[in-house]
Amino acid sequence: MRLSWGKNVLVGESEDVSVTGLFVACAEVPPLRQLLTIELSDTIHGRVKVLGMAVYDAEPRPNRRQGIGIQLFGNDPDAKRRWDAFVKSLRRAWGATDEAPRPSEQLLTAPAANKPELRIGFTDRDSLSNFVTEKLVDGPVAIRTPLFLTPGTVLRLSLGCPGQSMALGIDAVVAVPGPDAPAESLTVQALELDLGRARALIASTVVPEPSIDIHVTLDLGSEAVA
Q: Which of 130, 150, 212, 217 has its CA 20 to 30 A from that of 142?
């Protein structure tokens, strides 16, 4: 099994797999609330890929190895169907029944935050200013990420760059993607945008040395999507 977020990759072994999440035994654990890409495979279904959020970490103990509990989050309907089929097949192989949920199903039933926060990092002040005053102000903007959220979902954009004293927070809503939106992207539209406050905050940013990496970070936890 492979867990990844941004440029980080962990390899572990899956345990307690359920339709809502799973427990992965691994030597290192990702940060809590981190959005993860989960990849695993078997001889029947081949490669299965879904998204999930790290919701608890577990220290090693006599009946369980060290690892991370993951709740599925942000998957489109097709990915959910593939995961459900994979889990049902696996449970049949284990001899499990729907009436006797495995521990992960009991531990991973808490819903995710009502308002997800998308943390978007820019390399410099000009890039941040252009995103806010040239793109976000004009209407829906597509952000490259595999995260799927149903149109109408309210979220919080947290925008920042090096040298900024505090992040610029903007409430937004997930919009229906346009015909030109990239295949793996999330289209968002600002609900309220105070351009005066945004410009003042951006103008107060201390200009750092130039950087070459532009990335988007998602805090469900955080995932670089280059």
A: 212
Is residue 226 within 8 Å of residue 8, measured between CB atoms?
Answer: no
Q: Are 95 and 16 found together in one domain? A: yes
Is the domain of 140 the same as that of 202? yes
Peptide bond into 221 cis (omega under 30): yes
Task: Check which CATH number belongs to the domain holding 193 and give it.
Answer: 2.40.10
Structure tokens at 65: 């190895």
Bridging pattern class, strands 117-121 and 154-160: parallel
Dump the DSSP string for 125-162: HHHHHHIIIIIGGGS-EEEE-S----TT-EEEEEEE-T
User: 137 and 49 in one domain?
Assistant: no
Same domain as 62, residue 121: no
Domain containing 152: what range?
Answer: 117-216
Q: What angle do CA 65, 74, 177 make, to 5 degrees?
A: 160
Do 23 and 45 belong together in one domain? yes
